[in-house]
UniProtKB/TrEMBL annotation:
<dbReference type="GO" id="GO:0019288">
    <property type="term" value="P:isopentenyl diphosphate biosynthetic process, methylerythritol 4-phosphate pathway"/>
</dbReference>
<comment type="similarity">
    <text>Belongs to the IspD/TarI cytidylyltransferase family. IspD subfamily.</text>
</comment>
<feature type="site" description="Transition state stabilizer">
    <location>
        <position position="26"/>
    </location>
</feature>
<keyword id="KW-0808">Transferase</keyword>
<dbReference type="InterPro" id="IPR001228">
    <property type="entry name" value="IspD"/>
</dbReference>
<dbReference type="InterPro" id="IPR029044">
    <property type="entry name" value="Nucleotide-diphossugar_trans"/>
</dbReference>
<feature type="site" description="Transition state stabilizer">
    <location>
        <position position="33"/>
    </location>
</feature>
<feature type="site" description="Positions MEP for the nucleophilic attack">
    <location>
        <position position="164"/>
    </location>
</feature>
<dbReference type="InterPro" id="IPR034683">
    <property type="entry name" value="IspD/TarI"/>
</dbReference>
<dbReference type="GO" id="GO:0050518">
    <property type="term" value="F:2-C-methyl-D-erythritol 4-phosphate cytidylyltransferase activity"/>
</dbReference>
<comment type="function">
    <text>Catalyzes the formation of 4-diphosphocytidyl-2-C-methyl-D-erythritol from CTP and 2-C-methyl-D-erythritol 4-phosphate (MEP).</text>
</comment>
<feature type="site" description="Positions MEP for the nucleophilic attack">
    <location>
        <position position="218"/>
    </location>
</feature>
<dbReference type="InterPro" id="IPR050088">
    <property type="entry name" value="IspD/TarI_cytidylyltransf_bact"/>
</dbReference>
<protein>
    <recommendedName>
        <fullName>2-C-methyl-D-erythritol 4-phosphate cytidylyltransferase</fullName>
        <ecNumber>2.7.7.60</ecNumber>
    </recommendedName>
</protein>
<dbReference type="Pfam" id="PF01128">
    <property type="entry name" value="IspD"/>
</dbReference>
<keyword id="KW-0414">Isoprene biosynthesis</keyword>
<comment type="pathway">
    <text>Isoprenoid biosynthesis; isopentenyl diphosphate biosynthesis via DXP pathway; isopentenyl diphosphate from 1-deoxy-D-xylulose 5-phosphate: step 2/6.</text>
</comment>
Amino acid sequence: MSAIFGISQSFMKKYAIIVAGGSGTRMGSPIPKQYLEIGNKPILMHSLEKFFKTDSSIRLILVIPEVDFDFWRALCEKFDFTVPHQLVKGGKSRFQSVRNGLAQIEKTDGLVAIHDGVRPFVKPEVIMESFKTAEAEGSAIAVVALKDSIRKLTDDGKSFFQERQYFRLVQTPQTFQVQKIKKAFEVTELHHFTDDATVYEHQGWQVSLIAGNVENIKITTPEDMEYGNYLLGKNPM
Ligand SMILES: Nc1ccn([C@@H]2O[C@H](COP(=O)(O)OP(=O)(O)OP(=O)(O)O)[C@@H](O)[C@H]2O)c(=O)n1
Ligand SMILES: C[C@](O)(CO)[C@H](O)COP(=O)(O)O
């Protein structure tokens, strides 16, 4: 980090892997959810733009199914979408899609944010903080506190009160020092690797948490589309 005119600035190369290799089964739409329009363009374009507008020097790596490459290029033409990005083919699972994205990063001395393509409402402040914390501490995982009470269910049908202050909802971006996350992804995929933090901590490394933003939902089911359109109507990007 260095300070120029009071603004703290890092000179480390920054990357963002935007994963959108899924099929969106829970959305149940004829085309995968990442290409559905909210506001005036596909969800995925909002997500890519968030990173580009935050810092245009971030190298954007977009992971989508290889069968969708032509479809995506056609969408870019249709929407006059000019944010520079590299297309990479997705894998069978999110883990494999991330690994394909990481394989495109040759150098090991940078920082990489891994972000779900279907989280278009991430705030620029969260993206910037994730790079800053990952540079200092190795990782930065965006999380938010719970507002509701929670209960733990047991297999025999009972439920128990849990202290919610000990829990956080996990979002993306999940940002890391490139060298460490590339090493972490050299392992065999395990069932509990639901995100990148779990892969990182499998190495025995502690993750650092940062504050996410509550609107940064993962668009998953049809009602999330309604909420997304509502947010854009009230709060155009
Ligand atoms: N093989 C996969 C599976 C998921 N993802 C991405 O990981 C993010 C989070 O996954 P999720 O919301 O579960 O997306 P889908 O797998 O598409 O949805 P579903 O589980 O409903 O099928 C999404 O941006 C999704 O495109 C991916 O890149 N490659
Ligand atoms: C990465 C993630 O969005 C963090 O909350 C989440 O783990 C993805 O889970 P999914 O089952 O692939 O939707």
